[in-house]
Design goal:
This protein is mainly β. It contains no helices and 21 strands. Strands 6, 7, 9, 11 and 12 form a 5-stranded antiparallel beta sheet that branches. A 4-stranded antiparallel beta sheet has the order 10-8-13-14, with no helix packed on it. Strands 18-17-20-21 form a 4-stranded antiparallel beta sheet, with no helix packed on it. The chain is globular, with a radius of gyration of 23 Å. The protein has strands at 2-3, 13-17, 24-29, 32-33, 44-45, 61-70, 85-94, 100-107, 113-115, 120-125, 130-132, 138-142, 151-160, 165-174, 191-197, 204-211, 219-225, 230-237, 242-249, 256-264, 267-275. 0% of the residues lie in helices and 50% in strands. It has 3 domains: 1-51, no CATH class; 53-186, Sandwich (Immunoglobulin-like); 191-275, Immunoglobulin-like, CATH 2.60.40.
Length: 277
Amino acid sequence: IYYKDFTGLGVMGVGIESKNEEHGLEYYLDGIYDPTASVITEGRALRITTNRPLTSSLPWVYQVGTPVFDDSSGNNNGIIEQGETIGVRISLYNGGMAQAPITKAVILDTTYITSMGDSAAFGNIFPGATKYNAESPMRFRISEACPSDAVLEVPIEISSLGGWYKTHTKVRIHVGGPVGVDEFDKLPRGIELLRTYPNPFNSSARVEILIGYDVSERVRLEVFDITGRRVGVLHDDYLQTGQHAFSFDAKDLPSGCYFTRLRASNLEKTGKLLLIR
């Protein structure tokens, strides 16, 4: 984005957004810059890329995944309604090169939303790690004056480094809709090897795994032969909460019995697959 001639900012936004308006990057909105953003001036260009800054020593914390709402602090009927107190849990990912210590998040007030003042504690988020506020949901009250069937944006302020680092995100909530398909007590915990198919297989197989909300460590998925020799590493990095699938290519391996091993910190799961030529 290049600004050759520039006369000032007003009620407008600068950034990018997906077609379904559910994901995006906000650089400027209605007089507010991102805390780490440079001011837009004549002759300045903005480069939007998936590559993180190589020289930054700051954390880069942003929301990932789908927020989970619940009305257990309200009437607990599973419907988001006017005048009700709603709790929300989100996942935060640190894509920067520095640790984000004592990370917190709090909801900000809007016309129809009043924060209950709950600060969600995420603790220390290391580079490449994801944290989830399982035990400290942020709560807010929806105004009784809110129109029915409205879709509200809930602004959230994220802070770390004793408040020196701050950034913002937003989640959307549908008034009159259900609290969400994922209730908190149904969220997955730990790690699981879901299935491998086809099994037996003759050239390649698909390995599906499940990562729980409480897993913030590096996840490693490996394949071993019957002698214990490792013949493949399907993944060795951090993963978001939810299901993931990986392909195991065995075109150069002989027929026989093989084992998958899924590890994250002190958690471990193993599975068996059979290669038949």
